[in-house]
Amino acid sequence: MEILKLFGVDWRLMIAQLINFAVVVVVLWWFAIKPLTRTMQERSREIGKGLDDAKHAAERLDEVEQEIKGKLQETKKTAAQILEEAKKNSEITRQQSTEKTKQEVELIIAKAKLQINSEKEAMVVSARQAVAALVVDALHKILSQGVSKDLDQKYIEKVLKEFKK
Amino acid sequence: MSASATEQNRQNDNMALTEQNEAGLVEHTEAENSHEGGHTLFAEPIFHIADFPVTNSLLTSWIAVFFIIILSLVIRTRLKKIPSGFQSFMERVIEGAWDMMDMVTGSRRKSEQAFPIVFSIFIFILVNNWLGLLPGVGAITYDGYPLLRGGTADLNTTLALGLFSVVAANIFGIVVVGTWSHLNKFINLKALIEIPKKIIKEPTIVLINPIHFFVGLIEIVSEIAKIASLSFRLFGNIFAGEVLLASISAMMAFGVPLPFMFLEIIVGIIQALIFAVLTLVYFTIASTEHEAHA
Asked: Is A6 within 8 Å of B120 when comparing Cβ atoms?
């Protein structure tokens, strides 16, 4: 015990230093270590959660991409089918319309031909009549100056016969 | 507290030391005890509160405690989820401490349980060690005595810490492995009880278990030795460092003490680390040795 006296050991000072240390433990624990470790744990938990979420998101993304691929292929198939059907339908429609147009054109041509023929016949008739009238008028004028009535009549009939031929 | 009362108390302290000198226990003289800027083995009382002597080491310890409180409050107030530079540094220190403790305990759970005590010991000793190196500590005098002296350059501090370390380790052991199992480490009644039970099966137990009982008694001595080794190692290193710096400064005040200052800064860290790690080792021994028996 004498050696302790040599070093000035005093139980009151030891208790005072223990109190100092106790204050340090409490203050460090309460204000530094506990909040700091809690923050670190919360952060690592959040990072872990973030990584998990990212992993789930990546998995979900893969799933969605697969779904999109599947749907895209399905859509392509459907589109191809629709296109094929549309082509067929349009071909049929085109053929039908072509056919119809042909028929209409033929009908129009036929009508036109008929109309042309009738107009032609009418024109011929009218021309004949006009020519005949002209001829008659012309002969009248010519013959009135020196041809007998009988000769005139004969000549007229002859001309008419030739004309009729 | 009046100045005359303080002077009276100081005279009493000096008288006590003089008596020790006369008895041949203290070899240094009274002049050595009270000389300005000198180094005594004990901390000098600066003033008294009633009968309680406030020594220069205690004053430095109060400053250390104040500094640690400020540091803790700064950490608390600047705490952010996304850490800044200082917080990052503290987090790295804590993570490093945990990893280091894991190497000793072998279990993160145990490391976390012992961490507040061990880390506080480290910080308290480190701050006290470094405060003792600051310019003015030991040089500024008050009434002929150094006003401040390194907190750990006083055996009262180191002894209190050593005592706390060993007692806390034993309490930790009791909490972890149970009172009966832990106390059997010192007074191994279990070994004595086993003798009549196993004597027929293992006759050698008559020789072995009394040895175990005796080893248990030696363990009590080893606990006291732990306190002594912890406290004297720290005190010796820090006190020697201060003496070394004072001696070098006395020989050449400028430039020459600088390398020794750096040396003492490193010694301050190493001694704080040794004390903390040894405390952790005691905690681990107290909690694991008996687990094997269980």
From this structure: no
Residues of B in contact with A35 (CB under 8 A): 75-76, 79
**How far apart, in whole angstroms, are the C-alpha atoms of residue A33 and residue A31?**
7
Distance from CA of A56 to the nearest CA of B (A): 24
CA atoms of A72 and A62, how far apart (whole Å) = 15
Per-residue pLDDT tens over the stretch B93-118: 999 999 999 999 888 888 988 999 99
> What does the pLDDT look like over A116-135, one tens digit per residue?
998 888 888 888 888 888 88
Using a 10 angstrom Cβ sphere, with 0-12 exposed, 13-18 middle and 19 or more buried, the burial of residue B149 is buried
Q: What is the ipTM of this complex?
A: 0.81
Which residue numbers of A have CB closer than 8 Å to B's CBs? 2, 4-10, 12-18, 20-21, 23-25, 27-33, 35-37, 39-40, 42-43
Q: How far apart are CA A69 and CA B152, in angstroms?
A: 73
- Asked if the Cβ–Cβ distance from A25 to B235 is below 8 Å, we say no
Domain ranges (residues) in chain B? 97-293
Nearest to B72 among A7, A14, A31 (CB): A31
Indicate whether B7 pLDDT > 90. Answer: no
DSSP state of B42: S
DSSP B48: E
